[in-house]
Amino acid sequence: MAAVAAYTYGEHSVVFVGTRSGHLKKIRVDGVPPPSQNALLYETVPVSEGSPILRDMVFSPDYRFIYLLSDKQVIRVPVESCGQYRSCGACLGSGDPHCGWCVLHNKCSRQEECEKWSEPRRFTSELSHCVELSVTPNNISVTTSDVQLTLRVRNVPDLKAGVTCSFDDLTESEGALLPRGQVLCVSPSLRDVPTLTQRHGDKRVVKLYLKSKETGRKFASTDFVFYNCSVLQSCLSCVSSLYHCHWCKYRHVCTNNVAECSFQEGIVGNTEGCPQVIPTNDILVPAGVVRPITLRARNLPQPQSGQKNYECVFSIQGRSQRVPAVRFNSSCIQCQNTSYWYDGDDVGDLPVDFSVVWDGDFFIDKPASMKALLYKCSAQRESCGLCLKADPSFDCGWCLTERKCLLKQHCSSSELNWMHLGRRNVRCTHPRITKIRPLTGPKEGGTRVTISGENLGQHVREITHVRVAGVRCNPVPLEYISAEKIVCDMEESLLPNPPGGPVELCIGDCSSEYRTQSHQSYSFVTPVFIKVRPDRGPVSGGTRLTVSGRQLDAGSSVTLFLGQGECHFIRRSGQYVVCVAPASSSGPGPTAVKLFIDKAEVTNSEVAYHYSEDPTVSKIEPDWSIFNGSTPLTVTGSNLLTIQEPRVRAKYGGFETTNACRVFNDSVMTCSAPGIVYMKRGIPESSQRPDEFGFILDNVQSLRTLNSTPFTYYPNPHFEPLGNSGILEVKPGSPIILKGRNLIPPVSGNARLNYTVLIGETVCLLTVSESQLLCDSPDLTGKQRVTILVGGLEFSPGTLHIFSDSALSLPAIIGIGAGGGVLLIAIIAVLIAYKRKTRDADLTLKRLQLQMDNLESRVALECKEAFAELQTDIQELTNDMDGVKIPFLEYKTYTMRVMFPGIEEHPLLKELDSPANVEKALRLFSQLLHNKVFLLTFIHTLEAQRSFSMRDRGNVASLLMGALQGRMEYATVVLKQLLADLIEKNLENRNHPKLLLRRTESVAEKMLTNWFTFLLHRFLKECAGEPLFMLYCAIKQQMEKGPIDTITGEARYSLSEDKLIRQQIDYKQLTLNCVPPGGEPGSEIPVKVLNCDTVTQVKNKLLDAVHKSIPFSQRPQAEDMDLEWRQGRLTRVILQDEDVTTKIESDWKRLNSLAHYQVSDGSLVALVQKQVSAYNIANSFTFTRSLSRYESLLRTSSSPDSLRSRAPMITPDQESGTKLWHLVKNHEHSDQREGDRGSKMVSEIYLTRLLATKGTLQKFVDDLFETVFSTAHRGSALPLAIKYMFDFLDEQADRRQISDPDVRHTWKSNCLPLRFWVNVIKNPQFVFDIHKSSITDACLSVVAQTFMDSCSTSEHRLGKDSPSNKLLYAKDIPNYKNWVERYYRDIAKMPAISDQDMDAYLVEQSRLHANEFNTLSALSELYFYVNKYKEEILTSLDRDVYCRKHKLRQKLEQAINLMSGSS
Fold it and tell me: Which of 35, 475, 498, 964 could be bridged to 971 by S-S, CB 3.0 to 4.6 A?
């Protein structure tokens, strides 16, 4: 304790205690006995780690802060930190007297910081008054929706402002308040349930929150479970579920709805009724033997008509073997006669997993541990003894004629030749000894000999005779291993010099068939030792001794004694024994050495070991180091030479470190100080004392911790960089100042840190001060690295740039004088040289100009050649498409893709199945929507709600256009009014007028997009669709002419710099002759591919060629087809992206290409239906999963600005640990990647490719832009909708006196090109039935960006950092801008369209597409927003005079009541 301060808060005294370790302890003191419980330490705050808190602590005047003082700083700490507690329990359980729980704000705070704290239950300080919430029911099935839930909430204030219920922030609904603290909520609809339960197994526990409308905060929560029975795939798991799940055994599904079961008798509700295989004893199956397997079972269902019979499926070494099975009755099934086999003889028996299935893949439950045991008698049983050791239930025996372990039926004349333990007195003949150890031992005996071999008896009692070199050896029963190993103890030899010899043994009797002897011989030896090193050590022991001699590896055991103490054995060989000396029991002095090998005692009176006094340490100099240690220490003491490997140790914060010492003589040794490890955050700036400091001197415990030493650690030195950039320019011999801190620890005495400074490889002379090192630089020049070495640390503050500045010596002065004499000559020479240089410079300039012209010519030539080649390809494509329509999507699909992108099966396309009252309510709602005032009020009210998101605005706009498809003239009136209101709002908010219609921030803007989508469909089909489709085909064909990386989406030919392959890829074009699916010989189609294409890329190109006149959605997909390479009449190879031949280098796996398979030009290939195999299934799953990550990344966005972010990083496959690559490996680090990609210094070859691609596609881009920006083109007149909407915008500008032509231009650009054309250009799949790849998407995004720039009025200032796509079309954009301005002028000059003519046109459009969408479904979807914002809409209707007059509120309430009557 270093400092104390206190004050009174409420009924408590709060004490603040500062500690020496830099912490502030907060203590609550209550005046309530007993004294042992009236003080509570409730919080410890780290303030200044390692620095003590000084005595002066002061409160701020309002007592909200306390000021503390350490050695180097003043710290302000709040007296409370209530905000750190996130729950009521944590807050009130903390013990902090300042803190209480603010209920409706769901926060821990002071009382005065809680709004309306004085109201009942708004603020609580008692743990028992925390809010409690429960729900009934607390679980429902995912197939059940709109269930009424009753929530009971306790300890809450008045909730009259209302509450909402939310499930994990995923769905939210209104809560109805009931008496007695109850709230009614509705569970999520079926539309929202999938988002709650996907990928969560059979259940998901979510938090059900109550949210206060008053504060907008969640204030109570409880767990709620959504369970999914259908996820459970077995009967036992289904009926064992904690929830209401039932098993339909004839359908093999788990459901919570028993009505879904086909047969009532097939419903299973408990484990007793489940079909299951009953566990039995081991199911033994001999390999290669044909036999049935009978299994006991329970409740086996009888397959019904059309259902397949039973099968047994065995999984043997990765192979699946299916065996027909017969169901005898509900409790017995038999796998029919079949043989089973496993490869190899590495194991004698193999547990095999199996399952019983019926109707193809309906599994019968069985215990996971229940397996069949497949065995081979002969495997791992090469001898008779091992054969007879086999499990008796295997029925294996030794066949004498075959000399193999076999089943009885496989042995000829088995009654005579087959040995089995079932017979009496069975013994294996011809025992054999393969190894004995040890091979030497003393004649005194006691040696334990291990004899290994085969056929060494079945029981130890059969070992009747064992002699080792003629000496009896007694078997040890506990170490005997049947048939394989005998262990025996030698008796003493009675001969004075016994000879050696082999091992002899008999099994049963000693007849020739049961007698054997070893090939190895056993010898008797006499071990001796002659010296001990070292010959002295400390009394405490721990010295490692080496006893040298001869024959010291004899026998089976060795024990060495020093006096009465046993030396701890380490290892031995024939020449030495190593052990660790024990502590002396008799103090210092000589001690006899005695060695026992088995029962032989070995002594030597001339050899003794001397115990000496334990070493002592009297002084350590210096008594300090730095945190890193490694500074030299000099240790003075006594008897230090007796220690072999002395070490110094330090322990700090629970971590021990050591360092080595070196002994000079008996009284002096030097050590390197051990460092200390500081594990907390922030290394302390002050000195630290270790918890323990001492020496490891063999086993001397008294010196491990020296309590008397004041050893101290100081912070490590730290050096600042040289200069601002780490480079310092100096002259030779100039002093170099190296600044830093902690350079001299604040200690007394003469000891200092030993610094070494290297300039390059040269040491410089040093002067050391507290904050800098002064170094005299050596006589060097050039760049030299500075290195500072101290205490095991190495610093490199930077590099010196030493440059010579020669002084003027006498020879130099003479030289200058002489130089002045020739100055005139030099000037004349310079003039002559200048003239020559000028001429050379002109030649160089001309040469550079010629190189630039050559480069430009090369680019132009490449563009020209690529353009000519593409023209040929496009011409061929055009010729092939004669008579084939462009694959336009039908009107319904086209409009749905624009209105609801990414949603294929929208409710607008389905019939609404609803009760009569719901249909009546929706028709009443439809009438209201056809009231202009109601509809405008409805939209404005929704847009005023903060929770009405951008997604909601787009959804409502699309639903409204779908619902009003039959009355386009009315929809147009509403749209015009909404746009007028939007313009007015924009001007009132003083936003820049050019921002109007820029982003989809209102219902009106999305409605405008949909309005143009409806009305420009015919213009797309008759006029603009063709150049757009041709541009798409040109991009696709141009991209596919060069390599495309299937992983990253990068290509050799690209308009996008971010999608450009930045490596040289070697490739060759091949022409493959493709046999189409189901095609006859002779129907081959030649298709151009690249040898670097992956198999999937080749399949796609082949499918494009074979099915070029068929829309994409009607073609077979590449993943459903196999590519078959036909070589000759018989050889057919299935090519795959990944197979067993796939190359793996390090952790990179490269996808297979045609070059990988060495497919040659002119090869015959065929597209065939996918072949199903085990490898295909596993491989397809792995590859598809790996590739899906990249595809999803590549398709997330179409914006040019996001192209860089969409380049996927290759991530390792989670199972194989490898990363896929095709043509290029992605950079390992994103910053490196980004630096490469962001560079504008693109090499000539890359610029050439961008320019070549741009030049090749130029005609198609021009054709599209010319078509879009023409008032009359290809015989089609300008669509009325464009003229009508542009006139409307001009009228609005006139009405608001906006005369700036740039504003009008921008409004029109934002209205049509930005809102419609850019969307269509970037997403041609909205218009055509095609597939858009990532590289095509990237190129179309560049075209779309160019289209947007062409419509802009602002000048684009281009520089070296401008995006490449803007630089690419920089010269074209001014021309395109002229087209846009001319287009807008021409439209303005056209005669105005009357409202009557426009209405007639709109009525005709409504008639043509009247039945495309289901109006009731659209109304039902719109009603969701009525239900969600019911009160706000009703309030808005009340405020409007027209609505009150026509009772629109009552009509809406009528519709609401009709709808609620159905729920």
Answer: 964
Evaluated on CA atoms 1334, 1339, 1340, 1345, the torsion sign reads positive
Question: Rounded to whole angstroms, how far apart are CA atoms 1010 and 998?
Answer: 15
Average pLDDT over residues 1228-1241: 39
Number of Cβ within 10 Å of residue 656's Cβ equals 15
Question: Are 186 and 172 in contact, with CB atoms under 8 Å apart?
Answer: no
User: What is the pTM (predicted TM-score) of this model?
Assistant: 0.48
Contact 375, 473 (CB under 8 A): no
d(C-alpha 1177, C-alpha 1310), whole Å: 50
Is the bond into 137 cis (omega within 30 degrees of 0)?
Answer: yes
Please give the average per-residue pLDDT across 836-853, as a whole number: 73
* Whether pLDDT at 847 is above 60: yes
Q: Each residue of 900-938: pLDDT tens digit?
A: 887 877 877 777 777 788 888 888 888 889 899 999 999
> Residues 1319-1333: what's their mean pLDDT?
91
**Torsion over CA: 736, 741, 746, 751 (sign):** negative
Burial of 623 (0-12, 13-18, 19+ CB in 10 A): middle
Cβ-in-10-Å burial (0-12, 13-18, 19+) of 1168 comes to middle
3-class secondary structure, 765 = strand
Give residues with Cβ within 8 angstroms of 336, minimum separation 6: 292, 323, 324, 325, 326
Closest Cα to residue 625, out of 774, 796, 754, 787?
754
Whether residue 1345 has pLDDT greater than 50: yes
pLDDT at 81: 92
Element (H, E) at 895: helix 891-899
pLDDT at 1271: 80
Token couple for 32: 């309530």
Cβ(1262)–Cβ(1028) below 8 Å: no
In the predicted model, is pLDDT for residue 1175 greater than 70?
no
β pairing state of 1219-1221 and 1148-1150:
parallel
To which residue do tokens 């600044």 refer?
739
Residue 1023 DSSP one-character state: I
Q: Which residues of 1194-1232 are buried (b: 16+ CB within 10 A; e: fewer)?
A: beeebebeebbebbbebeebeeeebbbbbbbbbbeeeee
**Structure-token pair, residue 374:** 């497949």
Query: Are the C-beta atoms of residues 627 and 713 closer than 8 Å to each other?
Result: yes
Burial class (CB in 10 A: 0-12, 13-18, 19+), 1144: exposed
Segment 354-372, tens digit of pLDDT: 999 998 889 999 998 999 9
> Who contacts 28 (Cβ-Cβ below 8 Å, separation ≥6)?
12, 13, 14, 15, 39, 40, 42, 95, 96, 97
- Residue 490, helix vs strand vs coil: strand
Residue 551 has pLDDT above 90, yes or no: yes
Dist CA 1392 CA 1280 (whole Å): 10
Query: What rounded mean pLDDT belongs to the chain?
Result: 85
Helix (H, G, I), strand (E, B) or coil at 219: strand
DSSP state of 805: -
With vertex at residue 210, the alpha carbon angle to CA 207 and CA 211, rounded to the nearest 5 degrees, is 120
Partners of 773 in beta bridges = 738, 768
- The pairing of strands 600-612 and 536-538 is parallel
Is it the case that residue 1240 has pLDDT exceeding 60? Answer: no
CA distances from 254 to 144, 189, 230, 359, 851 (A): 15, 22, 5, 17, 77
Contact (CB, 8 A) for 433 and 514: no
* β pairing state of 310-316 and 536-538: unpaired
> What is the phi/psi pair of residue 471, to 5°?
-105, 135
- Distance (Å, whole) CA 1056 – CA 502: 86
Phi, psi (5° rounding) for residue 908?
Answer: -60, -20
